[in-house]
Amino acid sequence: MSASGNDADDDTLCPIAHSTGLVGDRWSILIVRELLLGQSRFQDLQAQTGATSQMLAARLKRLEADGLVERHPYSERPPRHEYRLTPKGRHLMPVILALRTWGEQWCKPQSEQPATRMFHRACGSELELDGKCPACGGLVAWTDMRGQPSEAYAEERARRAADFTDHRRAADAQTQPDR
Amino acid sequence: MSASGNDADDDTLCPIAHSTGLVGDRWSILIVRELLLGQSRFQDLQAQTGATSQMLAARLKRLEADGLVERHPYSERPPRHEYRLTPKGRHLMPVILALRTWGEQWCKPQSEQPATRMFHRACGSELELDGKCPACGGLVAWTDMRGQPSEAYAEERARRAADFTDHRRAADAQTQPDR
DNA sequence: AAGGTGGATCTGAAATTCATAGTGCCGCTC
DNA sequence: GAGCGGCACTATGAATTTCAGATCCACCTT
């Protein structure tokens, strides 16, 4: 089921082994996170994930081969594309949400605000970390949620984008100091 | 927040980056899966995950350092222990369940039976892949579920355990052919 | 005492990942 | 029309990780 070079995960019935065969590494997960957040350009993905360009290129290639990502041209001459999630990729949302919940509950200093607040589309109330709607009193499906990054998190992301172009400019200046 | 050597994931607000810092690799996820399934001994973990012994030892050490796993002696002289999930580790269940759902829906040949069937503890009905209870008509929290491996999957696991001890015996025989 | 078991650790080869540098293409400016 | 700079990669060699396979150690069984 994996179009990439993965193996050893095709000869088992365990669906978790299959999943981790495709997205069982840090970079793939972070890339999917970014794509879900709406980023689509190489540069932005690189800035926000912190992956090296070749890691990113390699992972995107694999994600595309595995059918999670589609390359979508937004300019020919020079050939440029956006990367977008396919339905298969988009359905990783529950995995990302579960990682979010766990990270917020068990890996953060204290209960500072979640980086992204989630709301119930139907009634507008803010959801609990575990996905319960305090108004409707039940678990909400991921398709019925809407996320809103906190101000602090939005700022962090903006800074990362800025730092990235800065750093790049600096490197270029060093490479060609006086030509 | 990571007691292990991980870094680069502590200076962000993103909970997903934090999570993947601790469990963002294939082996850790498979190990957690096994522990959730009730395995606790080194050998069993090795057989079912397919990790090398040193990978397993290293990952268990890291998982322990990060507070996901507890080492629990069941024999001194020689020191032997079981590995058990802490509450922090057990709360990864939703992540594993999400990976399961995705794997069943998008990575398996067809709709063959799920490897593990899930049931609603309250009413006993079998849950949909997406976690809905057909009887109660809503999403069920992970704490209200119970899993039941299919026969085929149980057999696969038994075979893996058997193959592992066989393989080990074979290797030993080769190493010390006639002493 | 010989052999088996469970849980590791060591070693050297193979593969992956990293930092860093460069390339190709184009549009824009001057 | 030459040069500059942005974007999306690719190339390279060093550093790190992972692997297969052997070895070790302390017991236990026979």
Note down, in words, how this protein is organized.
Two copies of one chain form a homodimer. By secondary structure, chain A is an alpha+beta fold. Chain A is globular. In chain A, the strands form two sheets. The first copy, chain A, has a two-stranded antiparallel sheet with strand order 1-2. In chain A, strand 1 and strand 2 (80-85) form a beta hairpin. The first copy, chain A, starts with 14 loop residues before the first helix and ends with a helix. Mean pLDDT of chain A is 87; it is low at 1-5 and 175-179. Among the domains of chain A are: 1-92, Winged helix-like DNA-binding domain superfamily/Winged helix DNA-binding domain (Arc Repressor Mutant, subunit A, Orthogonal Bundle); 151-179. In chain A, 47% of the residues lie in helices and 13% in strands. Chain A is built from seven helices and four strands; from the N terminus they run H-H-H-H-E-E-H-H-E-E-H. At the A-B interface, helix 1, helix 2, helix 6 and helix 7 of A face helix 1, helix 2, helix 6 and helix 7 of B. The structure holds a DNA duplex (30 and 30 nucleotides).
Radius of gyration of chain A: 19 Å
Q: How do the SSEs of chain A run, as a string of H and E?
A: HHHHEEHHEEH
Task: State the helicity of chain A in percent bands.
Answer: 40-55%
The general outline of chain A is: globular
What is the CATH-assigned architecture of the domain at 1-92 in chain A? Orthogonal Bundle
Strand percentage of chain A, roughly?
Answer: 5-15%
* Span between termini of chain A: 51 Å
> Mind describing the biggest β-sheet of chain A?
2 strands, antiparallel
- Total count of strands of chain A: 4
Greatest interface and its participating residue counts: A-B, 52 and 52 residues
Spatial order of the strands forming the largest sheet of chain A = 1-2
Here the CATH topology of the domain at 1-92 in chain A equals Arc Repressor Mutant, subunit A
Oligomer: homodimer
Helix-strand category of chain A: alpha+beta
Task: List segments of chain A where confidence is low: pLDDT < 50 over at least 5 consecutive residues.
Answer: 1-5, 175-179
Number of helices of chain A: 7
Could you give me the name of the CATH homologous superfamily of the domain at 1-92 in chain A? Winged helix-like DNA-binding domain superfamily/Winged helix DNA-binding domain
Name of the top-level CATH class of the domain at 1-92 in chain A: Mainly Alpha
Mean pLDDT of chain A: 87
